[in-house]
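Worked Example 4.2. Consider the chain below.
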Amino acid sequence: MRKPLLIKNGYVFPLDARADLLIRDGVIDTVAPSIDPAQAPAEVIDAAGCIVMPGLIEAHCHLDKTLWSGPWLAERSASTIAERIALKNRNAEHGLPNAGYADALLRRMVALGTTHVRTHTDVDPEVGLRGIEVIQGVADRAADLVTVEQVAFPQSGVAKAPGTRELLREAARMPGVVAIGGVDPAGYDGDPHVQLRAIFEVADEAGCKIDIHLHDPGTLGAWEMELIAQYTKALGMQDRVTISHAFALSTVEPDLQRRLIDLLAEHRISIITALPYDRPLLPTHLLLEAGVPLGMGNDNIDDLWSAFGSGDMLERAWLLAYRSEWRKDALIRPALDVATAGSAAVLQLDRYGVDAGCKADLVIAPGRTPGELLVKRPAQRWVIKNGVVVHRPVA
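Applying the procedure from the previous section yields the following structure tokens:
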């Protein structure tokens, strides 16, 4: 039996109140203004001057592509989606997928407060299912620290890569795979119905979810979003479909943007953003006001696509607030919501939060308000997974 844990004197987010939390057997047992340590013998963490919040969620990354902890790569010049996808031809040259690199990045994420990760793992005729197997091995070894779920991702397309559909069907039955991915059914794959029919049918057969990379902007991307909604409705997959990136939402005129957001809400399709520097921001407040679940992730982290990305979800939430020009605490707060409860809603995590009965996945970091926490992003963080302290601040 795990030793109980008592967190004292913290400012609890999103409850917006100072409270104590008693944790037993991996679950938050009690949340109260004050809990006497003598009445509940436990390890005590004094969180005075700190914010206590649910574990951060990395909702979109690529552990199988990372070079983290490996040799530095000075040249990364590909710019278009097609050019970047073509970089898969260099994976073998760099030993990818690499369990050591993925493990190093995953453990960095844990130290920064991430307790749940969704990673997109390439599945195509060249790599087969090896990436899924490598990343699942990494996930299994780190299971006490962080929960990892995989999306079987047809990076090379489906129409363009014959045999991928059958591989996706096999991947959907593998441990750790919770969703089938997709990538620009029209703009990259060239036959949207071939790709969408394949991934929706595979996901429907397996009873899993869908998470589609949709980079196509403007009216092309808008049309693809409408197609995705049609397939969602036809197969009754509401609440099981996510569109990652969704650049069309920020690159169409306002009336069409509004119609797309209403369509997402109607079909209960969620959105994940990675906040790329070279794309307009998604209409965050419009999505939230419409009730569309919105999550976020780092996407590419030190890989062949990009040298950037730190694995820090507080930094990613800060980026949303910074680029949105949110200055007041009340405006900054939604960015932290997206990195926590928003991503949890997209991934449909069970018993997530800081209420009694929730799983004890928590982060404690210095800060007096959510705004201060995001702006300063202190390095000193306590991280708790299933009621066990898995990372402590360096003394």
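The mean pLDDT is 95. The CA atoms of residues 354 and 378 lie 21 Å apart. Compare this with Example 4.1 before moving on.
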